[in-house]
Amino acid sequence: MKQAQELSEQSIRHSQPTIDNASERLAPAKAKQRRHFIWLHLPALVFMVIMTQIPFLLGIWFSLHSWNLLNPSEGFPFVGLSNYIHEFVADPNFWPVIVQTVELVFGATALALIGGTGLALLLDRPFWGRNVLRGLATIPFLVTPAAVAISWKNLFLSPNFGIIDWLLHSLGLPIIPWFSSFPLQSVIIIIAWEWTPFVMLVILAGLQSIPNETYEAAKVDGANDLMTFWKITLPMLRKAYEIALLFGTIFIFQTFGEIFLTTAGGPGTSTMTLPYYTYQTAFISDQIGLAAALGVIGVIIAIFAARGMLRLMTEKEALA
Known about the structure:
It is a single chain. The protein is an all-alpha fold. The chain has helices at about 1-65, 80-90, 95-125, 130-135, 140, 145-155, 165-170, 180, 185-210, 210-220, 225-235, 240-255, 255-260, 275-285, 290-320. It is globular, with a radius of gyration of 28 Å. The protein starts with a helix and ends with a helix. The model is unreliable at about 1-15 (pLDDT under 50).
């Protein structure tokens, strides 16, 4: 035993210089490969900086100046943080717009998560024509926002010839002018209907990744369908829900076309969200400096929301 240990130590001592020499010979090749790797990524990095960072920096620069297109004689004076102070303190519409933006994002995301989960559970079951129904269920996500908004405005929620009000009238119920009585709720329903297929696809992928042996073991233990979903399916779909929530929140926050084509921010400012209010400030009120400040505020809110969600996801993974 002692001799074997001595022989192993000698072999390690003799092999160590060989390993060191091989590492020295491979070091220049690794450095060259690393430089080659950096050069390959440089065009993508330059393109990303040009398309994202430069416009953002220009937005910050515009937000520090006062620029009214209706009064070109005023010039383009530097005002510092006055535009931001005006929005936070003097603008009576700013904080209601922020609240409505939060309501829109959370309401549409919650409805999309519920609807997407229900569709995913139904389409995960084996039945004839399942693949066809899966393709049909993704159509709302593939249609452009303009077509979705016009369809819902004229085909479903119109008080004159909408399908929903026709059904209410057939049942003897009063007709509801949706976009005047429930404007924000109507927009939330439209956006949730549009994003439900995306959630369905993410949840469906998560369902198909769960091993069947897990469900078989639950049946052996006597668990019913509700207990199986609550104790097994839902915890194992946590990653899928996090992905759907992250991307859904980011993209729903940017909603513009649906509001523009249905309510135009009204009645009054009841459906005014931060992106639409930024557009109105820039192209209706012609206040470019204030609009740039609103845009910068929106980008900062989106960045902090995305980073907070990513941090929460990574913390949960570390605890797991």
